[in-house]
Amino acid sequence: MKIIQTPVRFYPYTGGVENYVYYMSKELVNLGHNVKVICANEPPSKKEDIVDGIHIKRLPYITKIANTNITPGFPVTISKENYDIIHTHIPTPWSADWSSIISKYKKKPMVVTYHNDIVGSGFANYIAKFYNSTALKSVLNNADKIIITQPNYIKYSLYLDKYEDKIEVVPNGVDVEKFKSLKISKSKNTLFFLSLLDEFHKYKGLDYLLKAILIVKNTIPDIKLVIGGKGSLLDYYHKMVVDLGLIKNVEFHGFIPEEKIVEYYNMSNIFILPSISSLQEGFGIVVLEAMACETPVISTEIVGVAVDVKKSNSGIIIPPKDTKQLAEAIIKILNHKNPEIMGSNGRKLVKEKYTWSEIAINTEKIYNKLI
Q1: 134: pLDDT confidence band, cut at 50, 70 and 90?
Q2: Which helix (H) or strand (E) holds 136?
Q3: What string of DSSP letters covers 70-122?
Q4: Are 26 and 52 in contact (CB under 8 A)?
Q5: Which of 164, 23, 139 is nearest to 89 (CA)?
Q6: What is the pLDDT of residue 121?
Q7: C-alpha distances in angstroms, 324 versus 201, 202, 334?
Q8: Does domain 2-173+355-370 bear CATH number 3.40.50.2000?
Q9: Pick from 48, 120, 167, 274: most CB atoms within 10 A?
Q10: If 0-12 CB within 10 Å is exposed, 13-18 middle and 19+ buried, where does residue 184 land?
Q11: Which CATH code is given to the segment(s) 190-353?
Q12: Where in the chain is the domain with CATH 3.40.50.2000?
């Protein structure tokens, strides 16, 4: 089967959608399929390349609107491709829109993975609302199947309720060979947070985590939060740390290379993803990565793996924006007699339910039904 994937960006760019497409495509190649990714050339890389058997065609872009690269050559490029099925992604317009148009013209099936709603702030919010009321409807109407990564998202989303008959639930996954426990010591009372630090990713909840650290500090004075990631709001968060008097408790480590992230998960006592927006947080792959490394997690009820974290006792799930409960959860795990139990429970859960190989097989079944 020849499969075209059209994320807005791809490896070596790292992000939730990009990682999803990379690992999914890699496993589909292992299943014997021909997979090609067509995307924007960000960061600048070889225009034509093969990574882990995945064929990549990177196109120049003229600008970015919100978080989407505008690649003028995309429509012509994709119209020249011969493929059996096209798999595109939301929340990245342009590539999804043109994938929809070309697939309809060529009478080829199209699958959309709907990671989360398209939202914005300020002027970007008006653009998002206009898009959602026009082009998004066309993409979803044309889609043969819509994949969501957690069953609850059909309730959270503002736009999916009309398409229930097209929806399939296939969760995100994690590479359990890469993300695993290492023989390194935990840093004392250390928390880890990982995200891009820009306006678009404020929904990850770092503001609330910093306020929670201020509460935890009264009980555990040497608490340390390591923040991985960089972005346009770095100065904003630096100032917040200073204003809260947390200079000795918070470390900004900037961009963390992919090969180092496993070490960060392993050296931390807890990984925290306090997401606050059910519209924007489609799943939360980083929670799976931490669990695969046998690190206890704290997250909110809106992440895709929340129910399983509770059931498996792999960490603590709290309501969004609840700074007090977040602080209490941190203290509870740091004072736990055997936090290793939570860690091993998380690893067991991931291996049973969230491996990319299993998820690729489920996606392949969807493709086969359509073809």
Answers
A1: confident
A2: helix 135-142
A3: E-TTHHHHHHT---SEEEEEET-TTHHHHHHHHHHHHT--EEEEE-S----ST
A4: yes
A5: 139
A6: 67
A7: 22, 19, 16
A8: yes
A9: 274
A10: exposed
A11: 3.40.50.2000
A12: 2-173+355-370, 190-353
Report residue 276 as tokens. Answer: 């606050």
Query: Which pLDDT tens digit goes with each residue over 276-299?
Result: 987 677 678 899 999 999 999 999
Q: Which two tokens stand for residue 243?
A: 């204003």
Asked if residues 24 and 58 have their Cβ atoms less than 8 Å apart, the reply is: no
Question: What's the pLDDT at 287?
Answer: 94
Rounded Cα distance, 92 and 9, in Å: 9
Strand ranges (E), the chain: 2-6, 34-40, 48-51, 54-59, 63-65, 68-70, 85-90, 110-114, 145-148, 167-169, 190-194, 224-228, 250-254, 270-273, 297-300, 315-318
Query: CA-to-CA distance for 34 and 3, rounded, in angstroms?
Result: 6
The mean pLDDT value of the chain amounts to 93
**Which pLDDT value is given to residue 302?**
86
What does R_g of the chain's alpha carbons equal in angstroms?
20
Residue 279: per-residue pLDDT = 65
pLDDT tens per residue, range 17-66: 898 999 999 999 999 999 999 999 999 999 999 999 999 999 999 999 87
212 falls in which pLDDT band (50, 70, 90)? very high
> How many CB atoms within 10 Å of residue 37?
24
Total-model pTM: 0.83
Q: Tokens 């990631």 identify what position? A: 229
DSSP state of 186: P
